[in-house]
Design goal:
single chain, alpha+beta, Rossmann fold, Dna Ligase, domain 1, D-amino Acid Aminotransferase, Chain A, domain 1, 4 domains, five-stranded parallel beta sheet
């Protein structure tokens, strides 16, 4: 078996780690990969959006299955091109990936499918957006409709702030093409939850839900980021809740996508806000494993779980269960570079102890190895440090202890990942 994982972040290292655990004899490739994936397989120096080069590499190396990690190559049609070349691939078509690449499109799909979500309106003209903002209650959420690398969602406390954000996106070009269309949405209160499902477009199987921490600072303060940490499992996710998410979110969306001629296959990520009455409102869809959710979810899946990804790609896939239960708990803490998310510093040497213990897995993200073998910071989110344990408090302790020992100049991290779960467990 030859498997190619497209991408070079912590999510892709976690995918390679899980594939290596489940298939020790497989030949793994990552494009472009990072120093972490290099220890598990062969890195190919190809950027994730270089579709021509990736299709050529899949043919050259006779890849059996390609797993696409990031959203950009999905939106660029990599899955379509690989399928056209006769290659098995795990990931949705460009048409189906519009669920993430266009928040406006996702809102329309949810409306047509009857999926619970916040009231919103979509704009390409500034005057219309400002009029809508002035007529609605505070706070408001302004979202760039296109892909913005985790920076396109702004929670605005006041209408004035929302108007400023709308001006910056629509008139100021703050987010480039991603912000030429915006969605203005009501602010939903509750607790966020990330629920991911594997699907071939017809059948689906829900993975252990996780909770992400988007804000840079402890206590959920500061700017939004791509994610500063995640944990799994989440006590809120009862069997009845997951059954409701399946019935009210995933199944209607899959039916609607099929009806539109864009059947969805791969992993579908539903970012939910659980209302006080228990209603799971959809905040967003992602068309790939979340990052850092993948670094918390993949290590707690039962051994052999990655076979589902391969079977969905190769067909047929007939899951024998509706939900995969976690085997233990995981807390993934992101170590970021100083200046993240605006202007992360690069080049700091990383001291990564080799004796962090069996309950810790370190996933590389923004790292690079220089000519003398030194691992250095090379991006905003540098490492994901996943602690494992019998429960979330134990996993949190393992992650925090390892984070303290890993060193690089400017290391930035949140010490309160999983704080809600720790409060529920009485361990905060």
């Amino acid at each position: 078996m030859k498997v190619l994982v497209v991408g070079g972040g912590g999510r892709e290292h976690a995918l390679c780690w899980a594939l290596r655990r489940d298939s020790p004899d497989a030949d793994l490739f990552a494009a472009p990969g990072n120093p972490g994936t290099a220890a598990l397989g062969t890195n190919l120096p190809i950027t994730p959006t270089d579709v021509d080069a990736l299709v050529a590499a899949a043919t050259q190396h006779d890849i059996d299955v390609t797993i696409i990690g990031p959203e950009a190559p999905l939106a660029a049609g990599l899955a379509d091109r690989l399928r056209a070349a006769g290659r098995a691939v795990f990931g949705p078509s460009a048409a189906a990936a519009r669920l993430e690449s266009s928040k406006a499109y996702a809102k329309e799909v949810m409306r047509r499918a009857g999926v619970p979500t916040g009231a919103s309106a979509t704009f390409t003209d500034l005057a219309g957006a400002l009029a809508y903002i002035q007529a609605h209650a505070e706070p408001l959420v302004v979202k760039a409709s296109g892909l913005a690398a985790g920076k396109g969602v702004v929670v605005c406390v006041t209408r004035a702030e929302a108007a400023d954000v709308a001006r910056a996106m629509l008139a100021g070009g703050a987010l480039g093409d991603a912000g030429t269309e915006i969605v203005v949405e009501e602010f939903l209160r509750g607790e966020e939850l990330s629920v991911l499902a594997l699907t071939d477009g017809e059948h689906l199987m829900i993975l252990p839900p996780a909770q992400d921490h988007k804000r840079l600072g402890e206590g959920d303060t500061g700017p939004n980021t791509g994610g500063m940490g995640a944990y799994c499992p989440v006590a809120l996710t009862t069997a009845p809740l997951l059954a409701r998410v399946r019935r009210d979110v995933f199944e209607p969306v899959l039916r609607e996508m099929a009806a539109q001629g864009a059947p969805y296959e791969g992993v579908l990520y539903a970012g939910l806000m659980l209302a006080p009455d228990g209603t799971p409102n959809v905040l967003e869809f992602n068309c790939r494993f979340g990052d850092p959710e993948a670094q918390a979810i993949l290590p707690v899946l039962p051994k052999g779980a990655t076979k589902h990804l391969l079977d969905i790609a190769r067909r047929p896939w007939r899951p024998k269960r509706q939900v995969i239960a976690p085997t233990r708990a995981a807390v993934a803490t992101v170590l970021a570079a100083r200046g993240y998310p605006e202007k992360p510093e690069r080049g700091a040497a990383i001291r990564l102890p080799s004796d962090l213990g069996p309950d810790v897995v370190v996933f590389h993200a923004g790292t690079a190895r220089d000519a003398d073998g030194t691992i250095r910071t090379a991006g905003g989110r540098v490492l994901s440090v996943t602690g494992l344990g019998a429960d979330v408090p134990a996993a949190a302790r393992a992650s925090a202890a390892a984070c303290e020992r890993i060193a690089f100049e400017g290391k930035t991290w949140r010490r309160d990942i999983a704080w809600r779960e720790l409060q529920r467990a009485g361990a905060a």
